[in-house]
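so the lab meeting is tmrw and i was supposed to have these ready like two days ago... anyway. pasting both below. for each one the top line is the aa sequence and the line under it is the structure tokens. i havent really looked at them closely yet so no promises
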Amino acid sequence: SAAADFITRDNTLSVSGSVLGVSEGTPVFINVMNGSNVAATLTGSVGENGNFTTNTSGVLASLGAAGTEYTFLASVTDANGNIVTDSFDVTVDRATTEATVGLASGSNSGATNDGITNDTTPDFSGFAEAGATVDVFLNGDLIGTTVAGNNGAYTLTFAEADIIPLTDGTYTLSTISTDVAGNIKPSAQGTSFTVDTLAPEVASITAADTSLNV
């Protein structure tokens, strides 16, 4: 994940930092809180330059695609007994969701969600975990990359995709989703759609004159 987003898929964590105004060797204590429960306690000591690094925690649990948020509560006591505290939150995220994909609604020219279109330059859309990067593949070839919005929705337009207008036939879309923590999830199976630009043949109808006798 990004360096400052405090989201990580690493579930064994240590903390580094610095403290001013305390002597070398002063202990640093950090409680790792899961709600009101202490999930781990990390310790370190202040070096001559004021920096410290704690030991590494045991395995921290991560539930679901959103992960689990922990609060790190740090405390240091100086020589006069004054306690300095600081805190920050970290989300441990070890899973993500599969990104769906299909024809965008404006590109499905037939019945709703029937996967049949006469549009040879279709747009594609779907849903993934919010903020996830989605690689979209057509018949196994990467055709573009986009990012899901805050609601999880994403669109890859034909103009953005690395493809030429499609000929009539059936195609398969698939995805690989990478969330902000770095978890990767390929789609389990592809989504098929058909391009059909041929108008149906109209059968000829011949009317014959008939007589009706009463």
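ok protien two:
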Amino acid sequence: MTSSRAAASDRPNSPPIVGEPKGKSWSAAEGLREVSTPLAALPSEIEFSADFPEPIHYDAERKLLSYRGQMYHSSYLYLFALSKDGPYERAIDQLFAKSVPPVASSATLPWGMISMVAAGALGILALVARMTQWI
């Protein structure tokens, strides 16, 4: 296969590819957070070669599709449009969702500082309320 872009656009009734690839290969993204999802088989029209312009890899032995780094929307659109295969599309959806960096949980918020600021604000409001009573 010469180009994944050509292969995707040659399919009849396929939507145009509106996303642009990241331009970073699997090996170039080494060291970035990696997410994986099961995929029984990669669609025959797709080949993730070493110079593929996205940090995505399929391990046929382990039947895992993996992505390195955060998948941005343009990359999602680009990868999703490569095949109409349902299991592949679901795998891309899962990688997109999993690649989002984790959000800080409420346990990591500085609740002590937040409560001190809130107490201080309430104290100021109480002081202002008393001062307005004297006027």
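from a quick look at the 2nd one: Residues 1-12 have pLDDT under 50 and may be disordered. The radius of gyration is 25 Å. will dig more after coffe
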